[in-house]
Amino acid sequence: MQAARFMEVGRIEVGDIPDPDPVHGEVVVRVSHAGVCGTDRHILKGEFPSRPPVVLGHEFSGTVVAVGAGVTTHSVGDLVACDPNIACGACPSCLLGRINLCENLIAIGVQRNGGFAEFSSVPAHRALSLPAGLDLRSAAFSEPLACCVHALDVAAIRPGERAIVIGGGVIGLLCVQLARLAGAEVMLITRSPARQVIGGSVGAHTVAATPEEAREQWPRGADIVLECAGTGETMAQAPRLAERGGRVVIVGVLAKGEGVLIEPFDLLLREVDLRMAFVNPFTQSRALQLLASGAISTAPLVTREVGREDLPGILASQPGPSEVKVLVTG
Ligand SMILES: [Zn+2]
Ligand SMILES: [Zn+2]
What we know:
- Belongs to the zinc-containing alcohol dehydrogenase family.
- Its cofactor is Zn(2+).
- Keywords: Metal-binding, Oxidoreductase, Zinc.
- It comes from Rubellimicrobium rubrum.
- The protein is of the alpha/beta class.
- It folds into 2 domains: 2-141 and 298-329, Quinone Oxidoreductase, Chain A, domain 1 (Alpha-Beta Complex); 145-276, NAD(P)-binding Rossmann-like Domain (Rossmann fold).
- It has helices at 38-44, 92-95, 136-139, 142-155, 170-181, 193-201, 211-217, 232-237, 264-269, 284-293, 311-316; strands at 2-8, 11-16, 26-35, 54-55, 60-67, 79-82, 85-86, 106-107, 119-123, 127-129, 162-166, 185-189, 206-208, 222-227, 242-250, 273-276, 302-306, 325-329.
- The strands form 4 sheets. Strands 3, 5, 6, 9, 10, 17 and 18 form a 7-stranded mixed beta sheet that branches. Strands 13-12-11-14-15-16 form a 6-stranded parallel beta sheet, sandwiched between helices. A 3-stranded antiparallel beta sheet has the order 2-1-4.
- Strand 14 (222-227), helix 8 and strand 15 form a beta-alpha-beta unit.
- The longest helix is centred in the middle third of the chain and has 14 residues, at 142-155.
- The termini are close together.
- The site of one zinc ion (ZN) has 5 residues, from loops.
């Protein structure tokens, strides 16, 4: 089968590798749609731990084509979305139910072969069946949406609060929709005019190009700030945009080893609550439900559909200012 593999820092190779066999406890999925994620770029640059050679792609949907021994939950023909994160189930965090904090966490498409291939073998319990009526294209968003659902759980928005979402990429645009569903008045901050337009179309009440513009609109700041851009600059700005007693949730990924200047004196005196939301603990089923019900729109977020052979070029360059989600199809 054709697959795009991460070989070493700086090198993605598209070529033929053997089809996966259905092993015990796993299902083989014919990949239908696979999303390109910022994490894939971090992996290629050596900024996120991986185990090359490995097929990347951790946001995908597809059809079950083979079922391994011992699998009773799935049949050939089932439509599924992959939850890429595999927790060990035995470490202290897992035993407390905090599976995203598993000490031995590995991810499909990061440390083991993922969805930038014709087929991918997935543990049956990580192949979530699609709710009735949900199509495979939308289902490819269930993993990033599940990360945002977790972020909204962490943010604990109450109806009527004001929320600022920093970053107009796919995570930001999904968080805008979830914050709106949670009853917040939502501002999106993004420099990109194209992303501002999409933000407005998916429910942001107002948009700003910069934190200064945001301040002009909401001088007191917001009850909730969701940092979804993952840059040093925006990480440093996020607490300053929080209202007194506000919450900041870090969702974006800043490269390992990079730091930012925060001012504990300011955070303390204003009791700004700094929170983290990492991946998708038990949230992907809800994400699938939100997609199936039509509460979250994904069509405006797909800016390009490409083939696997395009991946080396796409992953080696930063997304353009109007790019949101690139889907690999076929
Ligand atoms: Zn991702
Ligand atoms: Zn564990």
